[in-house]
Design goal:
Elements lengths: L19 E10 L2 E11 L15 H8 L7 E6 L2 E2 L5 H7 L1 E4 L11 H7 L9 H6 L1 H21 L15 H13 L5 E4 L8 H14 L1
Parallel strand pairs: 5-6
Antiparallel strand pairs: 1-2, 1-3, 3-4
Helix pairs in contact: 3-6, 6-7
The protein binds adenosine-5'-diphosphate and magnesium ion.
Amino acid sequence: MSAEAATHAEPNVSGMRPMLTADRLRMSFGGVVALNEVSIEIRPDEPIAVIGPNGAGKTSLMNCMSGFYRPQQGRIVFDGEQMVGRSVHQIARSGLARTFQGTHIFPGMTVIENILIGRHMHMRSSILQAFVHFHWAQKEEAQHREVVEEIIELLEIESIRHQPVGTLGYGLRKRVDLGRALAQEPKILLMDEPMAGMNNEEKEDLARFILDVR
Ligand SMILES: Nc1ncnc2c1ncn2[C@@H]1O[C@H](COP(=O)(O)OP(=O)(O)O)[C@@H](O)[C@H]1O
Ligand SMILES: [Mg+2]
């Protein structure tokens, strides 16, 4: 991906300062240059799509932003803080969530359980605390379940909430993966190839959910 590839057509209509800025990122693997001076700005409430053929560097860009890759050059500023060099977990805690090409779920666990996993960074109770302060931990879990129920309602997956995710079709699994990312209550959500492998109905549903989420 080269510099022009990631600039977006929408002018800065909001006038707001960027929530996330990537500045002249460079990422190469041996001789393969995946990102060549790529810059992008994302403002609050602004949906941005990065498009390009296979191998263009879209996933590499998201991997850099979310901390899975460390770019060899360039800066990433999220919510006023420099992100390059921080761990995936630290960046997630700062409020960045992502979905993956394919899915990133536990097939043996139910829909609710998978979405609850997205809450773990908001959970204070450790297993030990859960034993010592049983009631307090229970109360905390109840609050997390409330957020999860809201997400389940938003994504219209009430009827399958107790089903193991492995038994669901691809479109629904992608929806659960989105739910898991939303459970982080992120400030910014990166979705890698969200529509890949979906039929038209699933694509339309997902487009609606993305607008609702905003
Ligand atoms: N972990 C990696 N190791 C080696 N090469 C990689 C790695 N990740 C991406 N690449 C290479 O970087 C280029 C961009 O890939 P990628 O970011 O996956 O593009 P896209 O997501 O747009 O299809 C490709 O040539 C790919 O082979
Ligand atoms: Mg990709």
